[in-house]
């Protein structure tokens, strides 16, 4: 594994140039450029604050806005990493046939592209906290350092999910369609619009336990929005989730990497 990571780092100029090329191609001749990636979560936040905020006991839009926006961009990062990951190997088939580099390089290309948009969106969330809830701004800045390792763990989780989706799609073409349905369902089962306590009060705590994204929600939202450190159990649970998905991604890569070219 260490040799594998060393090789990936050796080709850092290659995969980083691919990421830059993706961004330039996507926003070429665009007036707003990468700002378009923020339009969807920002507009969705405005709509939910105006229309649905009071339905979920969040009549104070100043606090509900950053809460919903942070949930949207975090969930979007996981969703995009999985859905875009489905096409990774087909999209990079010409490179795979010509360049003897680890296949994880191409999944890293996908996740880094989604991660750049995620970091920009999180900067907007932080700005929203400073402007809309100035009374919590100083408290949030004191715990902001906790968000950084949480984001690193979230990135590794998304990378693992992207790897699994990439291999699954090569062997089962309907993976992308299945994941689209799964993420549509999980959007409403994940506390993005409403607080997690609503599910617990209705005896649906099991939905929070089986949803790995909820753990990363707590690790990002709590220190950023209300200045509260994640609990020890929350950090331990994130490590367990990351170990499981990361280990599964490593095992799948080790078993299928050399045979993948015959299935493209």
What are the SSEs and their pairings?
Elements: H1 2-10, H2 12-26, H3 36-52, H4 61-85, H5 88-91, H6 93-98, H7 104-132, H8 134-142, H9 144-171, H10 175-189, H11 197-201, H12 205-210, H13 212-226, H14 232-256
Q: What does this 3D model show about the protein?
A:
The protein has helices at residues 2-10, 12-26, 36-52, 61-85, 88-91, 93-98, 104-132, 134-142, 144-171, 175-189, 197-201, 205-210, 212-226, 232-256. Helix 9 (144-171) runs parallel beside helix 14 (232-256). The protein starts with a helix and ends in an 8-residue tail after the last helix. The protein has 14 helices and no strands. The mean pLDDT is 84. The protein is mostly helical and 264 residues long. It is globular, with a radius of gyration of 19 Å.
Radius of gyration: 19 Å
Extended strand count = 0
Number of helices: 14
Number of domains: 1
Q: What spatial form do the alpha-carbon principal axes imply?
A: globular
Percent of residues in beta strands: under 5%
Mean pLDDT: 84
Return the string of H and E elements: HHHHHHHHHHHHHH
């Amino acid at each position: 594994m260490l040799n594998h990571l060393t090789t990936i780092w050796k080709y850092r100029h290659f995969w980083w140039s691919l990421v830059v090329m993706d961004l330039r191609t996507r926003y070429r001749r665009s007036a707003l450029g990468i700002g378009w990636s923020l339009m969807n979560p920002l507009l969705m936040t405005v709509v939910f604050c105006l229309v649905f905020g009071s339905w979920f006991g969040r009549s104070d839009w100043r606090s509900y806005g950053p809460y919903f926006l942070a949930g949207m961009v975090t969930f979007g990062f996981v969703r995009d990493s999985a859905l875009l990951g489905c096409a990774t190997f087909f999209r990079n088939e010409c490179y795979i046939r010509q360049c003897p580099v680890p296949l994880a390089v191409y999944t890293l290309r996908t996740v880094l592209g989604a991660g750049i948009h995620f970091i920009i969106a999180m900067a907007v969330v932080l700005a929203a906290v400073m402007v809309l809830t100035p009374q919590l701004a100083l408290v949030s800045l004191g715990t902001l350092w906790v968000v950084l390792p949480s984001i690193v763990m979230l990135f590794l989780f998304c990378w693992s999910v992207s790897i699994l989706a990439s291999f699954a799609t090569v062997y089962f073409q309907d993976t992308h369609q299945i994941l689209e349905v799964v993420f549509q369902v999980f959007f409403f089962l994940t506390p993005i619009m409403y607080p997690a306590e609503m599910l617990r009060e209705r005896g649906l705590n099991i939905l929070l336990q089986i949803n790995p994204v909820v753990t990363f929600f707590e690790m990002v939202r709590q220190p950023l929005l209300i200045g509260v450190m994640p609990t020890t159990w929350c950090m331990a649970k994130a490590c367990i989730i990351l170990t499981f998905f990361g280990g599964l991604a490593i095992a799948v890569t080790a078993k299928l990497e050399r045979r993948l070219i015959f299935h493209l």
